[in-house]
Amino acid sequence: METRGRSGSILHRFRSSGDAFHASLLITLLLGVWSAQALEVSVGKVPFVEAMNGSTVLLPCTYSSCIGIKNLYFNWQYNDNGTMQKLCEAVIPAEGIEPNVLILHDRVEFVGSSKRSNISILLKNITFEDEGQYICFARNPKEKNRNHSAIFTLFVVEELKEVDDTLTVIIMSVIGGVVGLIILIMILKSLILFLLRRGPEKNKECLVSSSGNDNTENGLSGSKTDNKATPKA
Ligand SMILES: *[C@@H]1O[C@H](CO)[C@@H](O)[C@H](O)[C@H]1NC(C)=O
Ligand SMILES: *[C@@H]1O[C@H](CO)[C@@H](O)[C@H](O)[C@H]1NC(C)=O
Ligand SMILES: *[C@@H]1O[C@H](CO)[C@@H](O)[C@H](O)[C@H]1NC(C)=O
Ligand SMILES: *[C@@H]1O[C@H](CO)[C@@H](O)[C@H](O)[C@H]1NC(C)=O
Ligand SMILES: *[C@@H]1O[C@H](CO)[C@@H](O)[C@H](O)[C@H]1NC(C)=O
């Protein structure tokens, strides 16, 4: 009875103090739902790429929207030292309907698909001048034409050799270290096995060959017990 009363009062206290907590939780949940409804554009977890001149790069971009899309407008822009250069643009009429993409750059190809909410493009045969920021922009009229964008950065390098070299050095040193460790472990193992084997063998030899050694062993063990006994007493 007493414990019940106590736990009840504790619960009651918890509830009354939790009311504010619950209210704030509800507000954050509502805010979360509200913000989740908004369109999101993403260029992926790694928002940059390093590529060799002359190669073709994928500029990735995807969108997601909880309330769905209708006449979603998107474009890709290149930040050319502050001035925006439009590379392509299109309107996706509805989910799953492929857009009719207007290409404004001779080396750009649209490779996205509205079936996968993918609005990625390819930039072919890149030059050093292509280095910089690429902006994936999208606007969903369903949510008051709010603007959404994500930035993808392209670095153009002459050769990826430098990275490769350091990588191979790292890989080789790791492999070397592992091999060295294995060799060390094997040497240690055989050494330990050798010592372990030698130990009993010696004892056997002692036991078999001469009884004199056996006696000394007995004597030693006897003296050991003596030593142990003396501090006790
Ligand atoms: C990349 O640039 C270097 C230096 O300008 C040039 O020698 C090389 O041929 C270029 N490679 C390609 C594939 O365009
Ligand atoms: C970028 O713009 C600045 C001034 O706004 C100019 O000094 C610079 O030379 C420009 N760089 C290129 C690569 O055009
Ligand atoms: C988008 O489409 C391109 C081309 O099909 C593909 O390479 C890329 O992986 C896709 N990106 C995502 C996030 O699905
Ligand atoms: C790539 O660009 C270089 C110079 O910009 C040009 O000489 C070459 O023919 C191009 N290659 C392709 C496959 O477009
Ligand atoms: C959205 O972007 C357009 C340019 O594409 C601009 O004119 C408009 O002011 C922007 N709207 C907001 C709310 O930032």
TrEMBL record:
Which Pfam families does this one have?
V-set
Instruction: State where composition is biased (Polar residues).
Output: 208-224
* Molecular functions per Gene Ontology: sodium channel regulator activity; transmembrane transporter binding
Q: Which gene encodes it?
A: scn4ba
For region Disordered, the annotated ranges are 206-233
Compartmental location: Membrane
The residues the entry assigns to the signal sequence are: 1-38
Q: What is this protein called?
A: Ig-like domain-containing protein
Which taxonomic lineage is given here?
A: Eukaryota, Metazoa, Chordata, Craniata, Vertebrata
Which topology term describes how it sits in the membrane? Single-pass type I membrane protein
